[in-house]
Amino acid sequence: MDEDSDSSRSVDNSCEAFIAFQSIRDPSTNLERGICFSWPGIYDDENDLSPTNDNNNRREEPRSENELRKIVLSTLLEEDDIAPIFDGSRWAGTRLWGAAIRGIQYIAGHLDAKPDFLPPIRSDPNKGMSMIELGCGLGVPGMIFHLLGGSVVLTDQANILSQLVSNVIHNFPKTAVSEGKSCEKLHQDDFTIQAMPLSWSRDGISDLLSKLNRSDVGFDIVLNCDCVFEPLYGKSWILLNETINELLRVNPLCTVVTSVERRQDDGIDSFLEQMVGMENVGSVEKAWEEKRKDTCIQIYVTQGIANN
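RE: above sequence
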C-alpha cells in the first residue's frame, strides 16, 4: 500500500497541516484503503496511556516528527456493508471531515477561541475527563481525545460499527473495551475507549448509559461533528437533539460541543433553534467560526442549566 499526501480527501489543507494526515492507497487501483494521522505532541512511547504505564519517565529532549504516534484506520466497509451504502448516509461515516478536526482542536485548546469550560485533559492521566462522540463515523476526534488522556465512548449506527470496532481495537489494544465485555466492573474513572451502537433517541441513549454503568453520571463532554445535513440525513437532527437533551438531564454540568460545516439547506439553523428551547439546555453560543473561500465551519457550545 502506498501513502500519499495528495488529495481527493475531505479534510481541508489547513486541517491537514495540523494533524499530519496521509491517505493509504492500493497501488494497483489507487483507491483509498485507509488513513494515517498523528497529533502534535503525542509520541510512540506514549502509546500506552493506561494507569499502569509510567508516564512520568517521558523524554524531555526535543522530539522528531518521525516519532509521533501514528493512528492507522481502515476506511473500507465490510463486504456485507458495501451495497447498502448508496441507499443512505453510511458512506459519510467512512470520511474524515474538516469539522471533526476543528471540533477536537477546539476541545484540546488549539484554536484561537479557548474552551474556558474545560481543565487540561492530561492533567491527571489516571482520572481523565470522559466524552461521548455522537455520530462519530471514523471516530478520529474521540481517538485523539483518548490519546490526550480522556476516556471515550464512540457511537454510531450499528450497521457501520464493525469497521469502527476493528479500528479501535487495532490502535488501542490495551485500553479498548469491546461491546461483548461487561461494563459492570468498569469504574467511571477507568481509562478506556470503546465503540458502541446508538440510534439517537431518549430511550436509545438511556439504554446505552445503563449498559455503560453511567446512568447517574453521564459524561463530561458530548461531541457531535457534522451530524446535521438535511439533504443527506433528513431531519434526524430532531432525534440528535432528543439525545443531547437527555445527556444534559443526566449530567447538567456536561458541555456539548457541536462542530458543523455550513452548506446550502443544511438545516443547522432549525437544529440550533430547537436546541435553545429544550428544557435541559441553559445556553447555546457560537464559540468559533472559520470562513474560507469554499467552506464555513462553526463551533457551538451548549451548556446545561446547572452551568448557567
